[in-house]
Amino acid sequence: MGRGCWVRLGNRQPIASPPVIFPTIQFAIFFVVVLTANWLLKPFPRRWKLFMLSASYFFYGSWDWRFLGLLAFTTVVDHTVGDAIHRTEEPRKRRRLLILGVVVSLSVVAYFKYYDFFASSLINLFRPLGIDLPLPILNMILPVGISFFTFQSLSYTIDIYRRKLEPVPLLDFAVFVSFFPHLVAGPIVRGSEFLPQLKERHDPRRVQGAAAFGLIAAGLFKKVVVANTLATSVVDPIFASPQNFSALEVLVGIYAYAIQIFADFSGYTDIAVGLALLLGFRFPQNFDRPYSATSLQDFWRRWHMTLSRFLRDYLYVPLGGSRNGRAATYRNLMLTMVIGGLWHGAAWTFVLWGALHGIGLSIERWWGERGDHSATGTSLGRFARRFLTFQVVCLGWVLFRSDSVATAGTVLTRLGEWGPAPAVTTTVVTLIVGTLATQYLPADYRLRMRVAFSQLRPVTMAAILGGLLLVIDALGSEGVAPFIYFQF
Amino acid sequence: MIEPQTPQFIPGDKGMPAGRVIGVIVFALAIGLILNAPDIRRTAERQEAGWKRDVASAMIQPFEWFARTLRLDAPHNLIDSAIGRQAEQSPPSTTTTTAPVPVATPETTPTTAPSRREITAADPLRMFIGGDSMVGQFGPMLENTAEAGGLVEVTEVLYEFSSGLTRPDFLDWPVRLREIREVQDPDVIVLFFGGNDAQAIQIDGVWHEFGSDTWMAEYRTRVGDLMYELDEDGRDVYWMGMPIVRSDDFRQKVEVLNEIYRSEAERFESVNFVDSWSVFTGADGEFSEYLTDSNGDLVDMRLNDGIHLTTAGGIRLAEVAFGVIAENWGIA
């Protein structure tokens, strides 16, 4: 029958016209203009801030100008609340102001991102009982990057409450929240990391060009070649109709998604960090070879690190962390991971994904508190832990990628249906194995490559980058799909 | 947990002047534009007609001329060949975009109904599903729904983003469908267009805006010609109308397209217009992202763009479309 026969002609993606997507010519032109003005205006801080704010708002508005008001609203609210908290010393008033700021910011996210999900879930929950809840469905458009800029903005207010940060002028704060390299998909940069950099004198003679070019080229390759190819050739078809594929195809499809989401998101991060570096700013690291993790705890130290620490510092620790006994620790881990799952999207699949990681982290903690585990420290033990961790992470990705719990169930049940596997091509296997292999490359080997690149003459550097653009364009899709994390 | 570091610095690298950085970027982009010029030109031309497309096409032309003159497009073509992708050999015409094989649309219709044989598991109904990105979720779901009973074989689900009937310079669907009919010989052809067709049409080098008299006449002719050709060929055609969309502006355009599809389909016995619009309206007749599925649950049916379908939306529409097909072919 027609199993797996559906194709996209030319392996193409929808054309992304707005500059909100990095790997486009429109964005390249936008960035060259901004980069030039950036360094020309650096000696004039106020003009530079006004310019960068305008450029960032243009960048965001090119997707949908109507949501510029939302960005401005979040900025003004959190800045005003931060100022008010700083002005008072009375603990109760400070706490009330903090709660106000958090509630207002999260209400905006809840309204746009979660209202329809919870309303429809409640309606579906009560319907079998014969109760028709009169909740309206609002058909809201999800603003790109709302979870990211809300978290960044909130971190400022909370850090002022914790007296870890001094308030800054509204213009500085607005530049921080809207700074386009991190605006729509992170990394989640804290005010305490970014705002001091606004006061630094950036030397236009010492721009970290080589490092930035390496990051941007790597990010483009990961996104355009690895992520897009795996998505169109195997992941999308298998997760759309898992019942049409054999066990081996589904298994490879799951591994392919693990690689796709890593290449997609870490590729975006690489580009974002590289762009910021060219503009004179440093961003925190967001990925550190996550599929070489030896435990789930290790995985979360390596995957989306800026979200991990946000959840740790602003959710897990305030909940009590591991300070109140074993049961409370497990509860806090579960709550943190489930809420972290829900942060990714308004769907039960994300809730279950978070719960899976919460359970896994709790089991690891319980196991770690029991006796001697020296056997797991051997080479074989480390291999087994890495293998097991990767399988659990991939199990989670099945939930993460599936559009419903039922689809996830079908994907998993297909793992018992053996048969021919024409969807498992050499290209797919090469991309999966090749990307996994990079997770185990020695750090000094990668460093040597970067050092060698930085020592090249500018013309040679440009020629290599131009050649890489050829390879990326020829091997990748013609259009560029939006990054997966844009929807979060 | 480990604190995220800022690992981007290279030890010993003192950096370079900003002007040199910009120079490297511009030089690298220029090399990239030259080496990829034909490919970028094709991408530019896929955009909706308008000033953005014109500017992009004009900007890439000198790079493409330079690349072709010095044969600097050869490396790209070499890689294309190596990975089995068809490389473009010559620049396409940008002046004539009418269908290459004109088919006279008859004035007198309807035609005779297609002969519908008995469908059995041994001799299943052969079905082709094609169109633009709207097929992305709908096509696989229709395939699943149709093949579930064992009486249908879907020969292919084929969709191309940014394609349609306004831009044969990008993808000529009538020509492609001729090839498909020859190779796959489907009994049933399901087509879904409209997501990209609310844009200007080029005729003899002149662009005509969407909705103008010339546009309306030309688009109707293209739809009618394709339906006529498929009808003449004895295929049973199911032409999917566009569903209601969120944007008011685009909704008005979709109504125009649907009216053309519906009225043209009425002229051919073998062409069935399947109304998607009402499948995705709420109780108030307006756009609704959440609708009740077959289990009675409220489910998100539309993607965030308010145009494309989610998997649940694809299933909902697939059940409607297959219901019509199954009834016509007497499939239980």
Structure, described:
The complex is a heterodimer of chains A (488) and B (332). With 488 residues, chain A is mainly alpha-helical. In chain A, 68% of the residues lie in helices and 0% in strands. The longest helix of chain A has 36 residues, at 91-126. Chain A is globular, with a radius of gyration of 23 Å. The relative contact order of chain A is 0.11. With 332 residues, chain B is of the alpha/beta class. Chain B is built from 9 helices and 9 strands. In chain B, the strands form 3 sheets. In chain B, strands 2-1-3-6-7 form a 5-stranded parallel β-sheet, with helices on both faces. In chain B, a hairpin with a 5-residue loop joins strand 8 and strand 9. Chain B is globular, with a radius of gyration of 24 Å. Residues 88-112 of chain B have low confidence and may be disordered. Classes of the chains: A mainly alpha (488), B alpha/beta (332). The interface between A and B is large, with 88 and 88 residues. Strand 1 (7-8) of chain A pairs parallel with strand 2 (152-159) of chain B, so a sheet runs across the interface.
Largest interface: A-B, 88 and 88 residues
Averaged pLDDT of chain A, please? 88
Distance between the termini of chain A: 37 Å
Q: Strand content of the residues of chain A, in percent?
A: under 5%
Spans where pLDDT lies below 50 across 5 or more residues of chain B: 88-112
Poorly predicted ranges of chain A: 1-19
Radius of gyration of chain A from the CA trace?
A: 23 Å
Quaternary structure type? heterodimer
Tally of DSSP β-strands of chain A: 1
The helix fraction of chain A, in percent, is 55-70%
Mean pLDDT of chain B: 84
Number of helices of chain B: 9
Please outline the major beta sheet of chain B: 5 strands, parallel
Q: Find the structural class of chain B using helix and strand composition.
A: alpha/beta
Number of helices of chain A: 19
> Tell me, what's the shape of chain B?
globular
Can you list the strand order of the major beta sheet of chain B?
A: 2-1-3-6-7
Percent strand of chain B equals 5-15%
The biggest sheet of chain A amounts to: none
Q: In angstroms, what is the radius of gyration of chain B?
A: 24 Å
Q: Say how many strands of chain B there are.
A: 9
